[in-house]
Design brief:
The protein has helices at about 5-15, 60-75, 85-90, 105-110, 125-135, 145-150, 160-165, 185-195, 215-220, 235-240, 260-265; strands at about 30-35, 40-45, 50-55, 115-120, 135-140, 160, 170-175, 195-210, 230-235, 250-255, 275-280. Strand 4 (about 115-120), helix 5 (about 125-135) and strand 5 form a beta-alpha-beta unit. By secondary structure, the chain is an alpha/beta fold. The chain has one domain: 3-Layer(aba) Sandwich (Rossmann fold). Strands 6-5-4-7-8-11-10 form a seven-stranded mixed sheet, with helices on both faces. A four-stranded antiparallel sheet has the order 1-2-3-9, with no helix packed on it. It has eleven helices and eleven strands.
């Protein structure tokens, strides 16, 4: 979405008196915590602890944005490679590329050494390809049709219909990396995760850590905070409040640099200083 169209969206929301209620729990107990953009500002919900950009983005706005314009504003791993480049990436196991999972692939294996895995927000399939390479029966879901279609070039399956991905459930791992901050609200996605995740499975979520040292030091000037690209901002307390409502009885939180042994034992960190937040949630007392 261009800056002009984004401003039109903001102005229209203001002129139509869009509510300041929390986009997740609908609470009216929200407060302005500052501004990092022209016209818009960031609010925090006192009840669920979600932080969000106001005016709020809508499902309709996001659908247009991610089908048409996100690519121009996104980081390197969002740009589609050529067919030849995609083949080379697969042969080289994505080493040295921005899309290489690195330690994230290791920590998934610490939680479950193998099994059925779903990547929510699979983009052009690079995560599905890398997780399949280490033995997972992996599949993805992606809202962008062109990006999902490109995944076939990596010889992986990325679906674009929610009913189709539900039909493949249950999964031992539901993996979601840097997707939730782009949504208007996480409610429907959490319901989906509950449907997809097996009773003994794990939900693995990565988001920018808006409770980390840099977020606290720089406040709303910290790049990943709520913006036109990131309408939502998260701290660990939001997930600990929200996920039990969807059947996830245990919620553990970690931040980078990651300690694999600690993650294996689901020994949640008290201090979360890093720029990235990892949430591991499960329905049963232990992942086995």
């Amino acid at each position: 979405m261009t800056n002009l169209s984004n401003r039109i969206h903001v102005l229209w929301s203001m002129l139509t008196f869009q509510s300041k209620h929390c986009p997740y729990c609908q609470s009216r107990a929200t407060r302005r915590i500052g501004s990092n953009a022209y016209l818009s500002h960031v609010r925090e919900c006192a009840d669920c602890h979600l932080m969000y950009r106001w005016p709020k983005q809508t499902d309709k706005f996001n659908k247009v944005f991610y089908q048409l314009n996100y690519i121009r504003l996104a980081s390197e791993n969002m740009h589609l490679p050529t067919l030849a480049e995609a083949g080379d990436l697969v042969k080289q196991d994505f080493k040295g590329h921005a899309t290489a999972l690195g330690i994230k692939r290791d920590l998934v294996q610490e939680l479950k050494p193998s099994g059925r895995l779903c990547v929510y927000g699979a983009n052009w399939g690079y995560e599905v390809a890398q997780l399949a390479r280490i033995g997972f029966d992996a599949i993805g879901y992606e809202v962008s049709l062109p990006r999902a279609e490109f995944a076939a070039r990596l010889v992986v399956s990325v679906l674009t219909e929610l009913d189709a991905i539900r039909a493949k459930a249950p999964f031992d791992i539901v993996y979601c990396s840097h997707t939730l901050e782009h949504l208007p609200t996480p409610d429907n996605v959490f319901k989906l995760f509950a449907d997809l995740c097996a009773p003994t499975g794990c939900l693995v979520i990565f988001v920018p850590n808006c409770g980390g040292d840099n977020a606290r030091k720089h406040g709303l000037r910290w790049g990943p905070f709520s913006s036109s690209l990131h309408p939502l901002s998260y701290r660990a307390d939001f997930f600990k409040h929200a996920l039990p409502k969807y059947g996830f009885r245990s919620v553990s939180s970690f931040s980078d640099p990651y300690d694999l042994a600690r993650i294996h034992n689901l020994n949640s960190q008290d201090n979360l200083p890093g720029d990235e937040l990892l949430i591991v949630a499960r329905k049963t007392p232990a992942c086995s």
